[in-house]
Amino acid sequence: MKMDKIYGNAEDQKIVNWEEKYATGIEPIDAQHMKLFELANHLFAACSAKDDVLQKTFKEAMHSMVDYVHFHFSAELKLLHAVDYPDYHNHKKHHDDLIKEILTAVKDYDEGKKFVPNHFVRTLRDWILSHIAVCDKAYSYYIRDLIHNDTLSENKFREILSAACS
User: Fold this and answer.
1) Cα distance between residue 82 and residue 94, in whole Å
2) pLDDT for 87-146, tens place per residue?
3) For 3, 37, 92, 155, which has the most beta carbons within 10 A of its beta carbon?
């Protein structure tokens, strides 16, 4: 079944749009961030589905988000560890806090507890936007400085990035 038949016009269902201001300049990381935006929009669209499809589509979208968040955070933390990012532990804590929040929401939803999908998706959107715009931009500047100051060669950085994102 096509998504537009379930959700209506997908363009009308976006909660977040990728903009260049969110770009870190690290291509694989930016591609992963774009995927997070796509998944957040998919999750939001699932919230708007008709009652008969809401439960199934929201649950599927939520599980896709959980899986991808784990993948992305793992790649990002491998990268930050490899470049000896000084704020690594704080960055990891931000990730851990979001994962706990998502897993709690999934558990609550699965257990039928009072849960407002739209509220959760908006919270997720706000977290993604602020985290990328502030925390992820900070490490991208750190990495740029390492390369600019010849502390890290571009070739070595590409190796690190390839290993982190595989």
Assistant:
1) 18
2) 999 999 999 999 998 888 878 877 877 667 777 888 888 999 999 999 999 999 999 999
3) 37
Domain that includes residue 142, residue range: 26-164
Q: Find where tokens 């599927």 sit.
A: 60
Predicted model pTM: 0.86
pLDDT of 51-66, one tens digit each? 666 677 878 888 888 8
51 exposure class (CB count in 10 Å sphere: 0-12, 13-18, 19+) = exposed
Number of domains in the chain: 1
- Give the gyration radius of the chain's Cα atoms: 17
Q: How far apart are CA 112 and CA 145, in angstroms?
A: 49
Alpha-carbon separation of residue 153 from 2, 23, 83 (angstroms): 46, 21, 11
Concatenate the DSSP letters of all residues of 88-144 into one string: HHHHHHHHHHHHHHHHHHHHHHHTT----HHHHHHHHHHHHHHIIIIIIHHHHHHHH
Q: Give the CATH number of the domain where residue 73 resides.
A: 1.20.120.50
Q: Is residue 16 part of a domain?
A: no
